[in-house]
Amino acid sequence: MSRTAATPPAPADGLAELLAGCVSDPARVSTELPRRIAAAHDASPYLFTPRAVVRAASAAEVGALMAGARAAGLPLTLRSGGTSLAGQAGGDGILVDVRSHWRTAEILDEGRRIRLQPGLTVRQANARLARYGRRLGPDPASESACTIGGLVANNSSGMNCGTQDNAYRTMESLQFVLPSGTVVDTAAPDADQALRAREPELHAGLLRLRERVRTSAASRATIERLFSMKNTMGYGLNSFLDHSEPADILAHLMIGSEGTLGFVGEAVFRTVPLLPHTATGLLVLPGLADATDALPALLAAGARTAELLDAASLRVAQQSPDPVDELRGLRVERHAALLVEFAEDSAELLEETVATAQPVLDRLPAVTGTALVRDPRVRARLWHLRKGLYTAVAGARRPGTTALLEDIAVPMERLTGTCEGLIGLFDRHGYQDAVIFGHARDGNLHFMLTQDFDSTQETERYARFTDAMVDLVLDAGGTLKAEHGTGRAMAPFVRRQYGGELHDIMRELKRLCDPHGVLSPGVLLEDDPAAHLRSLKSVPKVDPAVDACVECGYCEPVCPSADVTTTPRQRIALQREIALATAAGDDERRRALEADYTYAAVDSCAADSLCVTACPVTIDTGAVMKRLRAERHGATAQRAGNAAARHWGTAVKGVRAALDTAHVLPAPALRAATGAVRRLGAGELVPAWSDDIPRGGPPRPAPRRPATARAVFFAACIGSVFAPETAAAETGGAAAAFLRLCERAGVPVTVPSGLAGLCCGTPWQSKGYTAGHRTMAARTLGALWEASDHGRLPVVCDASSCTHGLEQLLDAVPEPDRTRFASLRFTDSVVFTAEHLLPALPEPRRLASLALHPTCSTVHLGIDGSLRAVAAAVSDTVTVPENWGCCAFAGDRGLLHPEITAAATAAQAAEITAGTYDAYASCNRTCEMGMTRATGRPYRHVLELLDEATA
Question: Which residues pair with 716 in a beta bridge?
Fold first, then answer.
């Protein structure tokens, strides 16, 4: 089945209308060029621009869209996380998003089972299971971003699960939609009878294929050999041997089918126990043979994980600014290493296991010892070494090249020879920066290389390497894909790995399930031997700050604008597409993308920079968007921003007075007036009036300078701009609460003079007013330098985003001042309270329950623990929503673009409003406003609650 034959040109007119008729909300259908281009990019080296993007919200809608695609003569591709590496998540027809509206989970049997929809990430699923001491069996390294949909579609495994705990083995039941629209739920006791009644040809065909496989000794032998290893190449034909009823066979064939047989809308998995007690060691050995020879004994001794790193990997790891002790001073030649881990559910069992393994460890020819560590911080550094290889190689690659991460598996006895063969291929084909690492316990190797696809010569080099790699792996009796799925990258080689008979069975299976070839043609099965060399991405240089992006999508689950405009990956991809359109002289395309980019990328970005916490190559897309805001400001705008910084005290007074006045004016008139001003071009400065905008807040605290001060208190101006929640209006908000707590605990603090005119600088930094940011940085740091006795006293701030902003002020001052002010120490008030006030305060009167909202700044500052500690001091139960995320209020961003906050908070708001709590808390005024708006519940600063509880 060729892609050309399966994808005739779509009618230019009427597609949007056709698809709109398939869903309940036509707004979830987009045929606009920028949306299609943004959605086209995934983690693979391939690029297909869809004709339409649709966010489906139900199984019925997916079935209707499949029918619509068939009527339009277009292929349909299902997309969830877009983290797949082999091209299976992209297509040039209709791209159906099955992530945005598919994020529910249901815990069953006290966590021994879990029902999941495809849009939830593996990490999110495991977070729900953690309280029960359970987790999913598959443990892919991309668990923070890969979704359940991809886990099912690719038959994910990982470092620990082997072949016994992968998606195929731990799946209990599926609910899936066939291209005909038929919905099959294998949890139903009559699932097989229902399948036979609704899909008689498919049911009968599965029985025929089952017998065809079972009666062929050669087919059975090939399947048993390949599936004794990790194997995601082609369809899971082991289903025909492992199961008898067609419904069960089909459900297991769906696992690993990469969206080519149907859509899995729900899966029930059996879970596995969490093993919280672990011991980890990096065993550096003289060579690859020493490492692979050690594996059988280590695994027999109880090692649950054994990760292999070749010499090139060790050299990369040594280049880390802070390499682990085992690699310091080591002259890496032909060395290899095993990162091994032992894990049990109790400390006593762990000690017994390690004691049993010790003789095996002692016999190893390890060049840097065989010590096992239990300290979580040291263990984290060892795992960072392994997981950081991708970061190191991808981040250091030449701009304009693509980072390719491939995986294979071979029988254990062929592992050493295969590693050596790959290293030889790297040398022969000029991939000097390639590294090998992988799950050695499973004979599963990953190798990473960088490739330029912008010239015929480079593409041909990659083709020669791929052909040689295929020869090497298949000659070793291995599989060309162990974990990452066949996709488009290996589809032309499926016949060669399985042989003609089994390949024909796969073809027949595809025809039975998808007779019109609607679902992802060219994925998993492909007759064109060169298909894997076409539709490859160009990666132009656009900005040194983002050029390292590998479009992996790890940033997307933490991005608050993901469900309403664009994600960090898409913001970068659109920059690249604008550059390509410019280079090609396609002015119409460039203008369309640039016009959309202003709002969809720059203005709608919350700039919370949570993306950098998830990015494997540490790209801060939020910072880039702030810079782009700065670049569009002319000299007049910069002067206005600078003037506001110079007269900040007066400006805050004016805003407070304006808010107080607004609350006595008729709301309809205010809404009309602010709407008119925004339409005149002030949409990034003036919010649309909403009745939940607070009145002006109290003045900032008056100066005080006790002789025995233990800190300087920098009360954030945001607490003065906006009044606290009504319940706390008379008590003065977070600043007044903190000062009362200090007095109650006997901890004197200084309040600097001139505080009314000082600020952390975040408003200017966020909006791109660089001159004003520099002015405010110089003023604030200078005042705090004096107030803190030249850095002797810590500076405490009562708003987490402002504490974070203070930490960033040094970047805005000239180098001499940066050196002078470097000794300033900034501490958030919840940290200072947890460490210095709580031990000296009276026993708080406790609430029964508290809903807590950490902020993006508490994540950046690393103070979530302190926030929870303060919350736990006032409440017996503290609940952070499982769907927690940045609220996207981002200073005034939630006022200027309320749709961003509404989308960002929807899931956690639903979770909060489904329960009842005695109080609701956070640690930043605007975040409190955002959550109050989202939930209708009164969020207050946690210190206000502590103040009341200890009064």
Answer: none
- Tens of pLDDT, residue by residue over 148-178, are 999 999 999 988 898 999 999 999 999 999 9
CB atoms within 10 A of CB 588: 9
Note the pLDDT of residue 877.
97
Distance from C-alpha of 118 to C-alpha of 888, rounded to nearest angstrom: 24
Q: Which residues contact 885 (CB under 8 A, 6 or more apart)?
A: 558, 560, 904, 905, 907, 908
Name residues whose C-beta falls within 8 Å of residue 546's C-beta, 6 or more positions apart in sequence: 572, 575, 619, 621, 624
Mark residue 891 as left, alpha or beta (left: phi above 0; alpha: psi -120 to 50; beta: remaining).
Answer: left
DSSP letter for 711, please.
-
Q: Determine the Cα–Cα distance for residues 407 and 85; give it in Å rounded to an integer.
A: 10
The yes-or-no verdict on residue 11 having pLDDT over 50 is no
Strands 444-451 and 435-439: antiparallel
pLDDT at 767 over 50: yes
pLDDT tops 60 at residue 461: yes
**Given this model, what pLDDT does residue 8 score?**
32
**Main-chain phi, psi angles of 936, to 5 degrees:** 75, 10
pLDDT in tens, 328-350: 889 999 999 999 999 999 999 99
**Strand 919-922 to 847-852 pairing:** parallel
Q: Are 796 and 827 in contact (CB under 8 A)?
A: yes
Radius of gyration over alpha carbons of the chain, in Å?
29
CB burial string 31-47: b at 16+ within 10 A, e below:
beebbbbbbbbbbbbbb
Helix (H, G, I), strand (E, B) or coil at 769: coil
Give, to the nearest 10 degrees, the angle between helix 568-584 and helix 33-40: 110
Angstrom distance (rounded) from CA 604 to CA 564: 9
- What value does the mean pLDDT take over residues 493-508? 98
Q: Are 852 and 877 in contact (CB under 8 A)?
A: no
Residues 6+ apart with CB under 8 A from 98: 56, 62, 78, 79, 80, 118, 119, 149, 263, 265
Q: Is the pLDDT of residue 70 over 90?
A: yes
Tell me what pLDDT residue 319 has.
84
Q: Is 113 helix (H, G, I), strand (E, B) or coil?
A: strand
Check whether 677 has a pLDDT greater than 90.
no
CA distance 942 to 498: 62
Nearest 5°: the CA angle 435, 236, 71 is: 105
The SS3 of residue 57 is coil
- pTM, two decimals, is 0.94
Look up residue 794 and give its two tokens: 């810590």
Of the candidates 744, 758, 747, 746, the residue with the CA atom closest to the CA atom of residue 714:
758
- Output helix, strand, coil percentages for the chain, rounded to the nearest 5: 50, 15, 40
Task: Indicate the SS3 state at residue 850.
Answer: strand
Sign of the CA dihedral running 168, 169, 174, 180? positive
For residue 638, is pLDDT > 80? yes
Q: What DSSP line would sit under 185-218, residue for residue?
A: ETTSTTHHHHHHHH-HHHHHHHHHHHHHHHT-HH
pLDDT confidence of 727, banded at 50, 70, 90? Answer: low
Looking at residue 10, its pLDDT comes to 41
Separation of alpha carbons 478 and 484, rounded Å: 15
How many whole angstroms from its chain centre is CA 122?
10
Collect all residues with Cβ–Cβ distance below 8 Å to 12 and sequence separation of at least 6: none
As given in the structure block, the two tokens for residue 110 are 């006290």
pLDDT for the residue 2: 27
d(CA 548, CA 570): 14
Contacts of 50 (CB under 8 A, 6+ apart): 36, 39, 40, 77, 90, 91, 92, 93, 94, 95
Interval 691-720 mean pLDDT? 95
> How does strand 134-135 pair with strand 76-79?
unpaired
